Amino acid sequence: MSAAESEGPAWRVIADALRSDIADEVYPPGSPLPGEAPLAERYDVSRPTVRRAINVLVGEGLLTVAHGRGTFVRSRPERRVILINTPKTADLLAEDYDPSTQGWLRGEHAKAIELRRAGIDARDVVITSAGRAEAEALGVRTGTRIVYRYEYWRHRTLHQTIAVTSITPAHLVGLMPEPRPEEPADLYDWDPNDPENPYTSSSRNQEEPSDLPDDYDPGEEPEGSTSPEWKMYDRLTERHGPVRFVSSVTARMPVGDEATDLDVMTGTAVLEVRRTMVDDQGRPLEVTTITAPADRFEVASTPEWLAVTQHTGGDAAAALRL
């Protein structure tokens, strides 16, 4: 029976048939798919219909198109595990942290290149305003000043690249004053000349002192590099401890130049492994995010993983302990 005589759109019937053949290794990983013309003849359809079916499978990550060479079944790469819930939680972006012990080499993040093109010398950390995603992760308002740290890591043997980022509200570590609360509805009921008005500049200047220098100018935009002599995790623990860590994993498609930066093939999702430091009230203090190709990495909880793989060298197979 031809595709045109089957139920459903012809391109979907062809996509289903090719997907089944790939699963059964009629076309094994790395092998070429027949050309559009032979497939069109086999299924008694036009070449654009075949092309649409192939594009569906490319989008699913089953096929890859090499221009000038043809369409190939994507090979299944070996996956390496990222372990979460490790007993010793380290600040991966601290200056004294050495990722080479796990086989990773630090690299320049796209954010650093973007800032340098804008005339800002900020290699791996900036104080900036929280966008919607950062604000939601930290439980703060959009526009709140945050310390944003970022690096790319490339594995010396796996030759895979991951993005490592960290965000924390700048006021929690004393780099910015405490944000003003939302203005209430009765703001304009106050006399601006009333010294008891909590929204006048004089009353706002009576806030608790921060760690900012005496000559700090709040009108300046501190978009640039910061080099705190203290350690981020130590400062957060001292000020807001005791702390604990909560991990989560999500998958999404790459955005912008992310696919190129992480060397992700078309149709491949990325994993976002997020570790959040929270205080004893559950308030987020810092968020570390690992973004990695989903076809090369998987995520497991450390205790369970080690219990299952203790006799097969599971610990040695871990690419990263978060």
What does this structure look like?
- The protein contains ten helices and twelve strands.
- The N and C termini lie far apart (53 Å).
- It is α+β, with helices and mostly antiparallel strands and 322 residues long.
- It has helices at residues 10-23, 36-43, 47-59, 110-117, 132-138, 201-204, 232-240, 258-261, 302-309, 314-317, and strands at 63-66, 70-73, 80-84, 104-107, 125-129, 145-155, 161-169, 244-252, 270-278, 284-293, 297-301, 318-321.
- The chain folds into two domains: 10-73, Winged helix-like DNA-binding domain superfamily/Winged helix DNA-binding domain (Arc Repressor Mutant, subunit A); 80-176 and 222-321, Chorismate lyase-like (Chorismate lyase), CATH 3.40.1410.
- The protein is 25% helix and 25% strand.
- It comes from Streptomyces chitinivorans.
- Keywords: DNA-binding, Transcription, Transcription regulation.
State the helical fraction: 10-25%
Q: Specify the overall morphology.
A: elongated
Spell out the CATH superfamily of the largest domain. Answer: Chorismate lyase-like
| Total beta-strand segments | 12
- What is the number of domains? 2
If you average the pLDDT, what whole number results?
A: 81
What oligomerization state is this entry in?
single chain
Radius of gyration: 26 Å
The CATH architecture designation of the largest domain is: 3-Layer(aba) Sandwich
What is the highest CATH level, the class of the largest domain? Alpha Beta
Q: According to CATH, what is the topology of the largest domain?
A: Chorismate lyase
Low-confidence region ranges = 184-190, 197-228
| H and E string | HHHEEEEHEHEEHHEHEEEHHE
The proportion of strand residues reads 15-25%
Domain HTH gntR-type: 8-76
Keywords: DNA-binding, Transcription, Transcription regulation
Pfam family, one: UTRA
Protein name: GntR family transcriptional regulator
